[in-house]
């Protein structure tokens, strides 16, 4: 492995971001945050494992990128108001959302 190589899990996230696709091996549906109930405490954002990094803070709200969300569901355990729901009918994220997603610094 080269000095700058990412661990496999972080590299997989980078590939998902580049391809804008969800891992087809993930059996659980992604989660979504109900904005009307969310108190924007950011606990879920801190609780989402780095290999997924699926939650972004948009300033006024916090959103889950479904393509990056494995449905694990670590964030649900962190949420104090229980407003993170299964999203069976998720739709692909648009450009404005992808623009908020950061690649791991090592890939820049
Ligand atoms: S379900 Fe897991 S991967 Fe998805 S946003 Fe929550 S913590 Fe992150
Ligand atoms: S943990 Fe719950 S209340 Fe806090 S930002 Fe996340 S979804 Fe919102």
From TrEMBL:
What single Pfam family name could you report for this chain, choosing any that match?
A: Fer4_10
Question: What SUPFAM superfamilies does the record tag this protein with?
Answer: 4Fe-4S ferredoxins
Q: Where is this region: Disordered?
A: 1-28
Q: Where is the 4Fe-4S ferredoxin-type domain?
A: 29-58, 60-89
The answer on whether this UniProt entry bears the keyword tRNA processing reads no
Organism's domain of life?
Bacteria
> Which GO terms fall under molecular function for this chain's record?
iron-sulfur cluster binding; metal ion binding
Task: State the UniProt keywords alphabetically.
Answer: Iron, Iron-sulfur, Metal-binding
Stretches of Basic and acidic residues bias are at 10-28
This chain's protein is named Putative ferredoxin
**Origin species:** Actinacidiphila reveromycinica
């Amino acid at each position: 492995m080269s000095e700058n190589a990412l661990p496999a899990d972080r590299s997989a996230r980078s590939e998902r971001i580049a391809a804008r696709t969800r891992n087809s091996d993930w059996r659980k549906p992604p989660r979504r945050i109900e904005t009307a109930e969310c108190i924007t405490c950011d606990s879920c954002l801190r609780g989402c494992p780095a290999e997924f990094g699926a939650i972004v803070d948009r300033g006024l709200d916090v959103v889950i990128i479904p393509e990056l969300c494995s449905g694990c569901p670590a964030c649900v355990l962190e949420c104090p108001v229980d407003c993170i729901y299964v999203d069976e009918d998720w739709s692909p994220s648009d450009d404005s959302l992808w623009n908020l997603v950061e690649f791991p610094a090592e890939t820049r």
